[in-house]
Design a protein that fits this description.
By secondary structure, the protein is an alpha+beta fold. The chain has three domains: about 5-235 and about 410-460, BirA Bifunctional Protein, domain 2 (2-Layer Sandwich), CATH 3.30.930; about 255-390, YbaK protein; about 480-575, Anticodon-binding domain (Rossmann fold, 3-Layer(aba) Sandwich). It is built from 15 helices and 31 strands. The strands form eight sheets. Strands 3, 7, 8, 9, 10, 11, 12, 21 and 24 form a nine-stranded mixed sheet that branches. α2 crosses α11 (about 450-460). It starts with 20 loop residues before the first helix and ends with a helix. It catalyses: tRNA(Pro) + L-proline + ATP = L-prolyl-tRNA(Pro) + AMP + diphosphate. Homodimer. Keywords: Aminoacyl-tRNA synthetase, ATP-binding, Cytoplasm, Ligase, Nucleotide-binding, Protein biosynthesis. This is Proline--tRNA ligase. Its EC number is 6.1.1.15.
Length: about 575
């Protein structure tokens, strides 16, 4: 491809709207263009990257025995009502009516549609296992779309679904997808971890996330320093261990704490270790079952002053659909007190206490009265609590639940998520099949997703420098760019064209920058866009019989002979160097 005939518009300034490096560089490199909040056009360079990621995914899905299909992005409400998610998915589900006043939505995911397909086609164990997948556009009306392709409202996703007659078969299908995902991200050239994860709105019995490691990642990953255990911060277990303080229990004492609202402020004001000043937080939990009805409840959660409440753990303990910190006015309505003076003594809500607070005595808690706290509280003596639970975020140095070694925290970007769904959707939607004994039973399902655009963006977050993107060769828009440095020199143009044509014939995905621009402009654009290899043909090096090859990742410069074997040597560098 000749750049003079291609569509590449780069920019030098950092766009003010872009917060993370991948968003900045994709805009600057002319890969995407914003249409609306969280919605982007894929420009030619960006689309090339997307297609390369898709092809890697497609190859590995096919190798794992999955079969591709394509489902409609528009889905009827009836299917979502069958699964029970129409009223529970939340505002992320973009709903609309057609001209006949029938309810539809834009698909954020396709469990309902795929279950309906299999329900109508599969009725016996003899037709299973079946794994179907698609690569398609989704839409989720995110409340805060941000970070470009990282968290958009419209996005391209590969979603796969497995169907088995029993759990044993489902476990095999799950493992095949697990292995395929490892192969996908290895083939993309991305350093990644597989971590235990919460199942979230998709549901199911367990799940794993695939995290691309990057210092700029929005997700915290807790990994054991000794064994293979890893989990995202939502799921990472905190081992319940410690020793109860052996001190005499002191009598309660109410003290004034004017204008002291945080645990740290109270601890410093009273001269107490912050570990003895727990935080009491009010959590709104929605979708809690009460008989056959769902309702919203509020609970109080306590963690040490130097710890943070984990909302996902709270949600799972109370069996809610979602859990969020209550708004200030809700706290006032529920407790009669403002945030900052809450405590468990005479708390009108159920109180869930983190395990770490088992081991401290004579603690300081809010008095449920503005600007007052109570000293020398001992929970088992002075408060009515639901019990002790793991409800905090894990920290570096906490103990691994498997081997007892310490956690370390890294940052990651979720690019893939796999779920063992069980019979959550097949039961509610009536997808059944005959087993070997002739019994009609719900089909056991799995669900497997990869964010295509997210994978491309995460490759940038993991691979960039001050000059621009450093694409792994497998997903680069072009593997190499040939740059004729002196566009007014016939010999330079002839040699650059010759190398370019030879590389094309060898199957190299190559671009020639034949624009009538200064060399500096071309070099800057090549660095910004991030081609793994830059081949510079200039009058000066050519006079010495040489062509310059720059490896983008290492900045290594290799001079090769400008003879008929030049293209072969460039191809050899592409094939053998770490790009």
């Amino acid at each position: 491809m000749r750049q003079s005939r291609y569509f590449i518009q780069t920019m030098r300034e950092i766009p003010s709207e872009a917060e993370v490096i991948s968003h900045q560089l994709m805009l600057r490199a002319g890969m995407i263009k914003k249409v609306a909040a969280g919605i982007y056009d894929y420009l030619p360079l960006g689309l090339k990257v997307i297609r390369k990621v898709e092809n890697i995914v497609r190859e590995n899905m096919n190798k794992a025995g999955a079969v591709e299909l394509l489902m409609s992005v528009v889905q009827p409400a009836e299917l979502w009502q069958l699964s029970g998610r129409w009223n529970h998915f939340g505002k992320e589900l973009l709903r609309f009516k057609d001209r006949g006043e029938r309810d539809f939505c834009l698909g954020p995911t396709h469990e309902e549609v795929i279950t309906d397909i299999v329900k109508s086609q599969v009725n016996s164990y003899k037709q299973m296992p079946v794994t179907l997948y698609q690569i398609q556009t989704k839409f989720r009306d995110e409340v805060r779309p941000r970070f470009g392709l990282m968290r958009g409202r419209e996005f391209i996703m590969k979603d796969a679904y497995s169907f088995d007659i029993d759990d044993a078969g489902a476990d095999i299908s799950y493992q095949k997808m697990y292995d395929a995902y490892r192969s996908v991200f290895n083939a993309c050239g991305l350093r990644h971890k597989v971590v235990d994860a919460d199942t979230g709105a998709i549901g199911g019995s367990f799940s794993h996330e695939f995290m691309v490691l990057a210092d700029t990642g929005e997700d915290a990953v807790m990994s054991c320093t000794k064994c293979d255990y890893s989990a995202n911060i939502e799921k990472a277990q905190v081992v319940d261990n410690g020793e109860k303080e052996t001190v005499e229990l002191s009598p309660l004492e109410e003290v004034a704490t004017p204008d002291k609202h945080t645990a740290l402020e109270v601890a410093e004001f009273l001269g107490v270790d912050i570990k003895h000043v727990p935080k009491t937080m009010i959590i709104r939990c929605e979708g809690v079952m009460d008989g056959k009805e769902e309702k919203t409840i509020f609970v109080a959660c306590m963690v040490r002053g130097d710890h943070e409440v984990n909302l996902t753990k709270v949600k799972n303990i109370v069996k809610a659909k979602s859990a969020e910190f209550a708004e200030h006015y809700e706290v006032q309505d529920m407790t009669g007190c403002a945030v900052g003076s809450l405590g468990p003594v005479n708390m009108p809500l159920k109180v869930y206490v983190d395990n770490a607070l088992k081991y401290v005595s004579n603690i300081v808690v809010g008095a449920n009265k503005e600007s007052y706290h109570i000293k020398n509280v001992n929970l088992d003596r002075d408060a009515k609590i639901e019990g002790y639970f793991d409800i905090r975020n894990a920290l570096s140095g906490d103990k691994c639940p498997l081997c007892g070694a310490e956690y370390e925290e890294t940052r990651g970007i979720e690019v893939g998520h796999i779920f063992k769904l069980g019979t959550k959707y097949s039961e509610s939607m009536g997808a059944k099949a005959l087993d070997k004994n002739g019994k009609n039973i719900p089909i056991v399902m799995g669900c497997y997703g990869i964010g295509i655009g997210r994978t491309a963006a995460s490759a940038i977050e993991q691979n960039y420098d001050e000059s621009g993107i450093i694409w792994p060769k497998a997903v680069a828009p072009f593997e190499a760019v040939v740059v004729p440095v002196n566009t007014n020199d016939e010999e330079v143009i002839k040699k650059a064209d010759e190398i370019y044509e030879c590389l094309l014939n060898m199957g190299v995905d190559v671009l020639i920058d034949d624009r009538n621009e200064r060399a500096g402009v071309k070099f800057n654009d090549a660095d910004l866009i991030g081609y793994p290899l830059r081949v510079s043909v200039g009058k000066k090096t050519l006079s010495d019989g040489k062509v310059e090859v720059l490896i983008r990742r290492t900045k290594e410069v290799i001079l090769i002979d400008a003879d008929n074997s030049a293209a072969e040597k460039i191809k050899e560098i592409l094939d053998t160097k770490v790009l």
